[in-house]
Amino acid sequence: MKLKGKSENKSLLRFTTAGSVDDGKSTLIGRLLYDSKSIFEDQMEHIVQSGKRLGREELDLSLLTDGLRAEREQGITIDVAYRYFATPARKFIIADTPGHIQYTRNMVTGASTVDLAVILIDARKGVLEQTIRHTYISSLLDIRHIIFCINKMDMVNWSETVFTGIKNELALLVDKLKISDTHFIPISAKYGDNVVDRSLKMNWYMGKTFLNLIETIEIRKNKNADNKRFPVQTIIRPHTSEYHDYRGYAGRVAGGVFRPGDEVTVLPSLRKSKIKSIDVLGKTLSETIGEESVTISLEDQIDISRGDMLVSPEDLPLISQDINLMICWFNERPMKIGGRYLIRMNSNEAGCIVKSVTYRMNINTLEHDFENIEVNMNDIAHITIKTSKPVFFDTYLKNNITGSMIFIDEGTNETVAAGMIV
């Protein structure tokens, strides 16, 4: 029983892999799972048979995550592939994201919920445009921990000089983007050097292996600990004899800690009440923990519906119809200035008009382009919108959940962009 409890209490680390095409992201994950004994026999057999069909002489571990037929035929990752595995120290969820420029939007969606970004660099090629792009997106998404894996060291004769040169170039980029916690590891994903086991060919590297680092790195899980935010997703009315008068508001805590007796303000009505109880799966909680889903009941009967939010009276979010934000555009059709879109912020929806584009990011130089402001697929830009009604929000850096939104084309119902409020 003790062992079971210990396993259940292991911390969960979510991380994403990114990099340019053929930098070895899928191979790194395959090697990590293979060397840590996390691949089942039937999966291993499937990899072997797939490799034979594709004419691969050596074991190709990238086939473990490249699940789409088109990916296996081209040897690239197109969609975001998710994998789960665990070691005695930690549980992990991996989002393996595409390397092609045209799939940048997939990297944004895959990285939007992670704690850590792993960015691969081909030691032969060094820092490329996609390296800069993925590092900038990680910074934009407030991912505070980045591991740079300089891969294919076997193809540069395990050179410390090559590794140091790439590391120094990356250090300048990290300093420019003000990323606080970064790590640099020379690896060979194909042969497993410094992935799970320490490399005998790079004795000059004195740091941790990749697995050891992700097992031990300290992650600040609750970024939004200081701001009480509870977006209401639905109303719970059991209509049973036992809970005849029960009215609860269900949702996922977006920030802070809520306790029975706490005073809360309901948005947008600004009416106040106190928390009567916090319930989940038939149990009453003394407080909320992290970003869990709960049902909150209040002492007063207040008209509350989906899209409303419970917050602390001393810490109200911004309330406005004019919003400045950074967006990543997902759609093949360019964004239209003056165009109408539907925005969704948590459970709240509103119409909006794009008022203006301030600038578009030049990923090569990380400079603002104020002249060429047409926003096409995979572009990142700073825009201003006006919503059809007052909405409540925080900046993305203050609260990742209440400071983000998606844009939906009202005609096609396609998600066309993701936005981070600045």
Shape: globular
Return the string of H and E elements: HEHHHEEHEHEHEHEEEEEEEEEEEEEEE
Number of domains: 3
The CATH class of the largest domain, by name, is Alpha Beta
Radius of gyration: 24 Å
Task: Give an overview in words.
By secondary structure, the protein is of the alpha+beta class. Mean pLDDT is 84; it is low at 1-7 and 66-78. The chain starts with a helix and ends with a strand. It is globular. Strands 7, 8, 9, 10, 11, 12, 13 and 14 form an 8-stranded antiparallel sheet that branches. A 6-stranded mixed sheet has the order 2-3-1-4-5-6, sandwiched between helices. A 6-stranded antiparallel beta barrel has the order 15-19-17-16-20-21. It has 3 domains: 9-216, Rossmann fold, CATH 3.40.50; 229-311, Translation factors (Elongation Factor Tu (Ef-tu), domain 3); 318-421, Elongation Factor Tu (Ef-tu), domain 3 (Beta Barrel). The chain contains 8 helices and 21 strands. β2 and β3 (91-96) form a beta hairpin. The longest helix is centred in the middle third of the chain and has 18 residues, at 160-177. Helix content is 19%, strand content 33%.
Jot down its keywords.
Elongation Factor Tu (Ef-tu), domain 3, 3 domains, disordered N terminus, 33% strand, 422 residues, Rossmann fold, alpha+beta, 19% helix, single chain, six-stranded mixed β-sheet, globular, eight-stranded antiparallel β-sheet
Fold topology:
Layout: H1 2-8, E1 12-19, H2 25-35, H3 41-53, H4 69-74, E2 81-86, E3 91-96, H5 104-111, E4 116-122, H6 129-140, E5 145-151, H7 160-177, E6 181-186, H8 210-216, E7 229-231, E8 234-236, E9 248-252, E10 263-267, E11 271-280, E12 283-284, E13 293-298, E14 309-311, E15 318-329, E16 340-345, E17 348-362, E18 367-369, E19 380-393, E20 404-408, E21 415-421
Parallel strand pairs: 1-3, 1-4, 4-5, 5-6
Antiparallel strand pairs: 2-3, 7-14, 8-9, 9-13, 10-11, 10-14, 11-12, 11-13, 15-19, 15-21, 16-17, 16-20, 17-18, 17-19, 20-21
